[in-house]
């Protein structure tokens, strides 16, 4: 009863000034203030994920429900329930397109991981016996070039595993190498729609075409190279002991990579040629993987018999043991291994930001940032904000505002939202994940001491974009 009374007070006609015939401005109403408080509290819990051990999806899912309860009561009293339903449907459609797109991409990455592609790459790097400075550069450069395809989070975790294995008890090297990996993964993800959720959002919204993202390549390189060059002088050239490990790729590993590339091409074709949402191409690509999985299962007995005969002929007991642990490839098991916490967190963010937009807050922010300020400075501020608050809600809020921006400014905000998260360890999914993977060895304060150098790279990348792509503004 107390909750009902509170809602009734918040949505009473005296809580805001509007009529049922006009779109209400609820930014200075009890409902609006309550929604802001709910979202702020939820996001405080999200930012404290590492300390609280509370998955970030939980608070935003609850916040989304509470905000839309307030909206439902409010618009029902105003006689504008159709407006609220229309806004709800629009936000659900936005989310469903991104959910299915990301789910297919994550399924392919999980399939590559299960086929041991990443294990083989890790074993190759560890077994080569590179010195620490060489490994610093190799993991950074690979992070930069793998993240545009495999996303920045997966790439960062892969490279972190290499650094952890080689670094051992050298915590200083592990920390600086992890900082380097986070910067490289975020910078590499900025010039590809597949590198980060924010770039994917901009691409799906139609503001930037697939090939236009490549104009951010030079600024992204500068964003990584500037801090990496400076930090490399603090990495010793000592050589750790090489750890030789044999990793045998599972059957079909390379063909799954080829199918993923074909899936990306299909998504681009749907968007570029047919002007359909890219998710249509991605879902078609999931069919490629399902049919290939069917082929692997059907031909497994014949493949095992052939390999067993070869192993027995060469008296290879290790090969025979490996054959005994072979399990059929299952696409739906790969789907279950997707990052569901991230996907559900994204739902909560979309619905929370969508609710705040309906209440009028995003219009208010857009008026200040993109009308009263120079758009370039507004987009620079977006990057700084994304280091404190996750870049997903920041970018979704900008897309919901729909400011009138030139192509140069859309590319700039894509760049800043992607690489701005590198300023703090909590500013990106890659940084948060590495704090968990290298617990106690890569820390918030360990990253913070390099922030001035990272900020130098951030400023240099913006200057490079303004210089190289100045004709787009």
UniProtKB/TrEMBL annotation:
GO terms for molecular function: antiporter activity. One of its GO terms (biological process) is sodium ion transport. The chain crosses the membrane at residues 32-48, 60-80, 92-111, 132-150, 210-235, 256-273, 279-296, 343-364, 376-399, 411-438, 450-468. The keyword Ion transport applies. It is a multi-pass membrane protein. Keywords: Antiport, Ion transport, Membrane, Signal, Sodium, Sodium transport, Transmembrane, Transmembrane helix, Transport. Belongs to the NhaD Na(+)/H(+) (TC 2.A.62) antiporter family. Its main location: membrane. Residues 54-418 form the Citrate transporter-like domain. This is Sodium:proton antiporter. It is found in: Membrane. It comes from the Bacteria. Pfam families: CitMHS (PF03600). Residues 1-22 form the signal peptide. InterPro entries: Cit_transptr-like_dom, NhaD-like. One of its GO terms (cellular component) is membrane.
